[in-house]
């Protein structure tokens, strides 16, 4: 931007700023070091929370897919096996799926925290 | 090359190199803003404290925002809080620290005018828009976001501030 008045423009442009002290960055890095050390060891909770929210949003879809899958498995097994055996096998498979799903959600905070820290290191 | 916003992610992850890279990019513009807006008072202390606030808030930083706008917003708010008392009076020359003298290149009529005093005579609101828009060439929208007012208000403040500076400069040169 320039001022409409050329004289004022020249005058304003004449405002020079003395340079910043040469050790400013070093002093800042020294002052920020304790906080950066805390950040490096603690997960970034906002990003972890975002990952959990996204995972929770996808949860109904995952559960609906599992329900359809289990129904299909039961129908297939019931063709060749007695109904009670088919039901037992389907329930076992369902329990396994639930276990894997639970493990996935438990791991989300851990993976999200470490992944964001790692990704940010690679950006620089 | 990493963007400023990516580097902020690095700071949030505790990466000192990311902070050093951000400083390398923004320390000088920030210093110039703090110096001109505050009339040179405590510019280095304000610089340090602004960066410390950046680090403290790194994990709350919204990476969809522009880092530069956020940085200047922090600096402006900090300076307002810091300088509880008004900026140096136009006549209060002793309160203003010395700066490099570029007046040697000016015409004799303007050579006796101290720009710092002209800026100090403006209200903090007018001074902020002048410094951000004129010296840092930020857009009116960016200035509006930094100072926290509508774009129309920025335009109005800019117009009035320029008019006042022009009048003060004429008054000082006569």
List low-confidence stretches of chain B.
89-96, 101-105
Order of helices and strands of chain B: HHHHHHHHH
Helix and strand element order of chain A:
HHHH
**CA gyration radius of chain A, whole angstroms:** 30 Å
What number is the mean pLDDT of chain B? 84
What does it look like?
- The complex is a heterodimer of chains A (124) and B (174).
- Chain A is an all-alpha fold and 124 residues long.
- Chain A is 83% helix and 0% strand.
- The longest helix of chain A has 41 residues, at 83-123.
- With 174 residues, chain B is an all-alpha fold.
- Chain B contains nine helices and no strands.
- In chain B, helix 2 (16-38) packs across helix 3 (43-56), helix 3 packs across helix 4 and helix 7 packs across helix 9.
- Residues 89-96 and 101-105 of chain B have low confidence and may be disordered.
- The interface between A and B is large, with 42 and 57 residues.
Keywords:
heterodimer, A: 124 residues, mainly alpha, 4 helices, 83% helix, elongated, B: 174 residues, 9 helices
Q: What is shown here, in short?
A:
The complex is a heterodimer of chains A (124) and B (174). Chain A contains four helices and no strands.
Can you lay out the helices and strands and say which pair or pack?
The complex is a heterodimer of chains A (124) and B (174).
Chain A: H1 6-13, H2 24-41, H3 45-80, H4 83-123
Chain B: H1 4-12, H2 16-38, H3 43-56, H4 67-82, H5 108-111, H6 115-120, H7 124-135, H8 140-147, H9 151-173
Helix pairs in contact in B: 1-2, 2-3, 2-4, 3-4, 4-8, 7-8, 7-9, 8-9
């Amino acid at each position: 931007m320039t001022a409409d008045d050329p004289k004022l423009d020249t005058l304003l442009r004449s405002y020079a700023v003395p340079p910043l002290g040469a050790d400013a960055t070093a002093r800042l890095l020294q002052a920020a070091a304790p906080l950066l050390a805390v950040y490096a060891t603690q997960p970034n909770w906002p990003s972890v929370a975002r990952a959990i929210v996204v995972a929770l949003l996808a949860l109904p879809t995952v559960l609906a897919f599992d329900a359809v899958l289990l129904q299909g498995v039961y129908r297939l097994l019931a063709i060749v096996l007695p109904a009670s055996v088919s039901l037992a096998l389907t329930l076992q498979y369902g329990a396994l799926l639930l276990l894997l799903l639970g493990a996935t959600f438990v791991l989300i905070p851990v993976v999200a925290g470490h992944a964001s820290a790692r990704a940010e290191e690679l950006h620089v | 090359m990493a963007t400023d916003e990516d580097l902020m992610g690095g700071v949030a992850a505790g990466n000192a190199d990311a902070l050093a890279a951000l400083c390398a990019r923004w320390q000088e513009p920030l210093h110039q803003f703090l110096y001109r807006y505050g009339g040179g008072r405590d510019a280095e202390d304000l610089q340090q404290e602004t960066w410390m606030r950046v680090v403290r808030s790194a994990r709350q930083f919204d990476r969809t925002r522009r880092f530069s706008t956020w940085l200047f917003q922090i600096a402006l708010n900090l300076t307002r809080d810091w300088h509880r008392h008004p900026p140096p009076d136009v006549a209060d020359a002793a309160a203003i620290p010395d700066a490099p003298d570029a007046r040697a290149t000016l015409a004799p009529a303007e050579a006796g005018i101290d720009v710092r005093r002209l800026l100090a005579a403006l209200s903090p609101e007018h001074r902020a828009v002048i410094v951000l828009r004129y010296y840092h060439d930020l857009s009116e929208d960016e200035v509006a976001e930094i100072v926290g007012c509508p774009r129309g208000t920025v335009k109005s403040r800019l117009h009035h501030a320029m008019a006042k500076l022009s009048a003060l400069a004429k008054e000082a040169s006569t």
